[in-house]
């Protein structure tokens, strides 16, 4: 049987806490690490293992067997130096997959140079999603795949109600693909071309920003 992946999360701020709790909820083993004793106490009932340690200290990380984890998330926020040093130590130790949270583009660049396998920008990304949400009342969620490609969830525009997916002709008109239709509790993946849109449908669409905007402007 395949061994379940093991995760470690360093830094129990709002972001790290959320990552660790969610992984735990999904049934994974999570080691949470923070240098602050109060944070460790507070979190002790929430995940599998919580330890107090300074993650910039290579010996402390080694003692925790950090090398054996499949994925280590560096979620330290404010203290950029601690964030960068921690990432460097993890790289030196030979952790196979390091995810690091960056405050801004320069910080992100630095993390990439050090060898972080994935750099994330939670504030920037959430900001984008909120902005897309505000601009169009139809848009429920937005995930950027690349600067000009995204996935959106949109409420069905009035004009498409009663039409089939084939009749709507979205692929040709906007170069977008409907990957799923959410209808009440039902999730239709993939949707049939003969499927008629109904009033409360939510479309999950992947495509270029221009095409997505075209769809959003339909009412
Ligand atoms: P968020 O926006 O996610 O809340 P934040 O920017 O507010 O993040 P911080 O409070 O700066 O996050 O840091 C998150 C956690 O990282 C804190 O609980 C802090 O104690 C911990 N931390 C900071 N430095 C270290 C370190 N060297 N080793 C381990 N944990 C650390
Ligand atoms: P993020 O995690 O998104 O970076 P943060 O919690 O670190 O957010 P803060 O530094 O607390 O963010 O505040 C964000 C901005 O809000 C700052 O530029 C700050 O100057 C501004 N700000 C704080 N209080 C006020 C206020 N009363 N009126 C106007 N601006 C404010
Ligand atoms: Ca913050």
TrEMBL record:
Pfam families with a match to the protein in the record: TrkA_C, TrkA_N
One GO term (biological process): potassium ion transport
InterPro entries listed in its UniProt record: NAD(P)-bd_dom_sf, RCK_C, RCK_C_sf, RCK_N, Trk_Ktr_HKT_K-transport
Span of domain RCK C-terminal: 137-219
GO molecular function terms attached to this record: monoatomic cation transmembrane transporter activity
Domain RCK N-terminal: 4-120
Annotated PANTHER family: KTR SYSTEM POTASSIUM UPTAKE PROTEIN C (PTHR43833:SF7), POTASSIUM CHANNEL PROTEIN 2-RELATED-RELATED (PTHR43833)
Name this polypeptide is given: Trk system potassium uptake protein TrkA
UniProt source species: Pelosinus propionicus DSM 13327
Taxonomic lineage from the root: Bacteria, Bacillati, Bacillota, Negativicutes, Selenomonadales
């Amino acid at each position: 049987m395949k061994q379940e992946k093991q995760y470690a999360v360093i830094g129990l701020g709002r972001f790290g806490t959320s990552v660790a709790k969610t992984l735990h909820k999904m049934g994974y083993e999570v080691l949470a690490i923070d240098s602050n004793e109060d944070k460790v106490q507070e979190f002790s009932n929430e995940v599998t293992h919580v330890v107090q340690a300074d993650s910039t200290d290579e010996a402390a990380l080694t003692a925790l067997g950090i090398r054996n984890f499949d994925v280590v998330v560096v979620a330290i926020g404010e203290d950029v130096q601690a964030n960068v040093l921690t990432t460097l130590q993890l790289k030196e130790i030979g952790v196979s997959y390091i995810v690091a949270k960056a405050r801004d583009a320069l910080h992100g660049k630095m993390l990439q140079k050090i060898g972080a396998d994935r750099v994330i920008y939670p504030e920037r990304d959430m900001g984008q999603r909120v902005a897309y949400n505000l601009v169009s009342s139809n848009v429920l969620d937005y995930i950027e795949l690349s600067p000009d490609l995204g996935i959106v969830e949109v409420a069905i525009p009035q004009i498409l109600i009663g039409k089939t997916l084939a009749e709507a002709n979205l692929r040709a008109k906007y170069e977008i693909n409907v990957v799923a239709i959410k209808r009440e509790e039902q999730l239709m993946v993939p949707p049939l071309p003969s499927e008629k849109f109904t009033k409360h449908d939510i479309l999950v669409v992947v495509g270029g920003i221009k095409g997505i905007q075209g769809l959003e402007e339909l009412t």
